[in-house]
């Protein structure tokens, strides 16, 4: 029997012919299965374009924020926020919940302005030799004292964060700062006695403490409020005493 008549050889030849016919067909050669293509996302939107979320939440467009504001608009907006919070301190008989709601959006610009103004006014009212010491002492004690009182409130179960507490205490020192500025203006015109200084500082102390107590009543449990109010009273008492003696 000839080798070409062997059934196994005939089968191999048939498979080779079938393979040759398959690869000779351009429509079938190395055709990849169709794949789904994702639509390209336009990047022309910049910060305002929507980005996909992996947690299933619908995409939210970023707002431009303050990037398109001028410097003057930004300063005016920040000054308006600071002024609004100072008004809350000047009206201490508003509800504590309203005060807390406004001060949850905390900032440290207002407390910084209050501390610088108070320290500068006290330093200018003292002798030239002690001006730097008075400024440093008042500025450091105001900030360190606010942080210590805030930490104490946190340990007593306060519901606000440390920056929010420092923000409230810094803004609440504004009556003391206003008292010092008032004494300085009146003193340059007609002079101020020690008794007038004491009465003005006492009113500022009550005013500042009352503004802070509104905050304490809302964030400290009722059984621990006295432990939170006492350091606040000491804090503003020291600042008010500096208004009297300097």
Automatic annotation (TrEMBL):
Q: What topology in the membrane does the UniProt record assign?
A: Multi-pass membrane protein
A Pfam entry, by short name: Yip1
* Cellular location(s): Golgi apparatus membrane; Membrane
Span list, region Disordered = 23-63
InterPro entries the record matches? Yip1/4-like, Yip1_dom
Q: Which GO terms describe its biological process?
A: endoplasmic reticulum to Golgi vesicle-mediated transport
Q: Which GO terms describe its cellular component?
A: Golgi membrane; trans-Golgi network
Q: What residue ranges are annotated as transmembrane?
A: 131-153, 165-183, 195-215, 227-244
Q: Where is the Yip1 domain?
A: 97-242
Q: What keywords is this UniProt entry annotated with?
A: Membrane, Transmembrane, Transmembrane helix
Secretion signal: which residues? none
Compositionally biased spans, kind Polar residues: 34-44
Q: Matching PANTHER family, A to Z?
A: GOLGI MEMBRANE PROTEIN YIP1 (PTHR21236), PROTEIN YIPF6 (PTHR21236:SF1)
Similarity-based family: Belongs to the YIP1 family.
Protein name as catalogued: Protein YIPF
Native organism is: Pelagomonas calceolata
